[in-house]
Structures
1.
Amino acid sequence: MTKLLKRLLKGVLLDTELADVFSSFDIIGDIAIIKIPDSISLKKKLIGDTLLSNVSNLKSVFLQKTAVDGEYRLRGLELIAGDNKYVTIYKEYGCQFFVNVASSYFSPRLSTERLRISNLVSENELIINMFGGIGTFSIVIAKKTPVLVYNIDSNMDAYVLSILNSKLNKIQDRIISLHGDAQKILHSVLFEDKADRILMPLPERAFEFIDVSVNCIKPSGGYLHFFSHIKSETKSKAVGDSENYVHSLFSRYDYQIKHTQIVRAVGPRVYQTVTDIYIKK
Ligand SMILES: C[S@@+](CC[C@H](N)C(=O)[O-])C[C@H]1O[C@@H](n2cnc3c(N)ncnc32)[C@H](O)[C@@H]1O
């Protein structure tokens, strides 16, 4: 949703105020989430009302008050226009998701990455999504290909939504939702040597879960999708810096980096990246 907000606010805000408006914001179903800098915070209601009256089917506009934070990766929200409700239905690639924008993590900005990983999967794989949230990656994958996905999350709300979302997409036989700490769940012998593929979409902490994830890969080999936050001087260096980081973390394993790419920029000179790593055992 780049530039739309600035376009809508032209003539509504002073030019000096317009210059401070952030270009991009998220629309999740019928809910918009926007950031507003302190310099124009007195205009938040006007900005919310303008958005609400110009975007069809929008019901609520929330101001994001804090960065995504904490174990559950949540953000502080304040209603600035429309209905005071957090739950919506979001659609992508023929899948639908119940989302609670306040109680569990969700980002529409990862949709291209969900599609990319779903295109790598083969029939009958056993997949573990260590930080599965409300089931987004797991469901996009399993809707497309008959596989078995264990969707793990420590946030009870995300776990409950992942069960509802598997049912909503009629693939409850392909997704097993588990609630708890991925480290503890995967230490169970049930998962040792079982996985063809493991998703690790917790960029801030994925490095803490390397040993347990490698232990779960099948003896014949399998893939890790390892997410990182990388500080790089320039965008063009982010992929190389990520791969150096992965080499430093995986040196005691037999592995091959198959692919690395930037998923999105998450701050000044900070990039979220994903590396596809083939583990040989
Ligand atoms: C960045 S979110 C990604 C969620 C989901 N994969 C998505 O893209 O929508 C990370 C998720 O990991 C969960 N989480 C954090 N620490 C965890 C842990 N130790 N074990 C299991 N889940 C954890 C959080 O609750 C959150 O839902």
2.
Amino acid sequence: MKFGIISDIHSNLEALNKVMPILINEQKVDKIICIGDIVGYGANPNECIQIVKKNVNYCVAGNHDYGIVRKTPINNFSKPAKIAAKWTRKKLSNNNYEYLQLLPLINKIPIWNLMTVHSSPSSPSNWEYLLSIEKVKNEFNYFNEKICFVGHSHQPIVFEKCMNEINSFTAKNGLDFRTKDANKYIINIGSVGQPRDGNPQASFCTFDTKNNRLKILRVDYKIENAQEKIIAAELPTILADRLSMGK
Ligand SMILES: [Fe+2]
């Protein structure tokens, strides 16, 4: 089974329209997983949800998805994020609002020994960022599957636990990796629509259970078009600027 895995689309239709055909037509994935934050920040929330509804087989909620549909507080969001959340709330169709409300916090796919959660296995609704080995150390105790895929930080990284040792592998320019049967993994696949690791290219992932091959892929997309739409929608300009900085 070959999975395509996406996360943190953040209403960026240009990025999603670049990534989705690559997964389906070039990578020929069998199933697609989304790890949340479909909306927030960008200018095309409904369009992005429609694409996810049509193509994604398993999806969990991110803090922006739940914040926008009032299932998690947004008072700790940054000012631009709060403005974008309120803007998105007004734009969403009733069906898409309900779709976000019904998303689960965790997906387990036991047959393939996988789990997905937007933030952390230990507290899925507390929206923790797993950025360091110190931070993930304890998280391996909170799932039994071989791999837990996460999003949220918008920074692709593989944490590998071998016995009691944890190593990490970043993926600023992509990554071609083989998971080992004896080890456990927490894998952040990066962000489709708002990368924050200094590389503005969209980040996403494929994982083939046949040979345990994990690829984190980076691709260019029409950033200027996404930026123009953010400006035209009168969303905060920082949300457009940061796309070309990859921050
Ligand atoms: Fe996000």
